[in-house]
Amino acid sequence: MWDLLIQNWHALLLTAVGAYLMGSMNWAIILTRLFKKTDIRATGSGNAGATNVLRSQGPVLAALTLVGDVGKGVLATLLGGWLMTAMNVVPDALPHEVLLVGRYAASLFVVLGHMYPVFHKFRGGKGVATSAGLIFVLDWRAGAVCLSMFILILLLGRMVSLGSVMAVGLAPFVTFAARRWIDGYNMGISIFCTLMITPVVVIVIAKHSANMRRIADGTESRIDEMVKKDEPEEQ
Asked: Is it the case that residue 233 has pLDDT exceeding 60?
């Protein structure tokens, strides 16, 4: 496992840079500037994400934002797997393990790019939609479990933030269980996959810290409520 990572450092570096740059294309910012001549970060909650676009700019731009953010998570993850496979210099490495390493490495950096975009002064979104896209590419089982949790919480509590945190928090546990005990990968690969997805989860949850405080205080807005101009509801 370590030989695979060390000898393919050039492929990992290119994967990280490419995924980060793709993540840095924040569609909430791009689309609102293009069509509304405004910066979404100065509107509504100030968050560069689909929920803020929905509530401040309408459903059309919100849908386009969601598609763009999910799409870049998918594309970056697929690109990472392709790069690692194409540039692999370890002849006896198993192809499916090389593919996994590239995809999981890319997943971390595309989310970092979304949250801290170099093209937008390092002020991006919270990474939920991008994380959703990449999780389904990495492991559809983890994606299905996380999506089911999100829908359940949304139906019960009507809070996007709570559903997002609860859903994404399951990803490391499902990832390790699926890779180790269902797919039968060795401990090294299973741990690597888990270690790559865990920082994504930690950062997404940390980005929702203000939402968690409002949930505890009982002041968090629900999806069917109109957000007043000065309320800091975020997604």
From this structure: no
205 φ/ψ angles, rounded to the nearest 5 degrees: -65, -45
Size of the chain in residues: 235
> CA angle, corner 136, sides to 131 and 138, nearest 5?
90
Structure-token match 């763009």, residue found: 68
Q: How far is CA 138 from the centre of its chain?
A: 12
Q: Given a cut of 50, is residue 63 above it in pLDDT?
A: yes
Residue keyed to tokens 């968050």: 47
Q: Give percent of the chain above pLDDT 70.
A: 95
What amino acid occupies position 204?
A: V
What global pTM score does this model have? 0.88
| CB 199, CB 108: distance < 8 Å | yes
Asked if 21 contacts 27 with a C-beta cutoff of 8 angstroms, the reply is no
HEC-encoded secondary structure of the chain: CHHHHHHCHHHHHHHHHHHHHHHCCCHHHHHHHHHHCCCHHHCCCCCCCHHHHHHHHCHHHHHHHHHHHHHHHHHHHHHHHHHHHHHCCCCCCCHHHHHHHHHHHHHHHHHHHHHCCHHHCCCCCCCHHHHHHHHHHHCHHHHHHHHHHHHHHHHHHCCHHHHHHHHHCCHHHHHHHHHHHHCCCCHHHHHHHHHHHHHHHHHHHHHCHHHHHHHHHCCCCCCCCCCCCCCCCCC
pLDDT digits (tens, 9 = 90+) for 13-26: 999 999 999 999 99
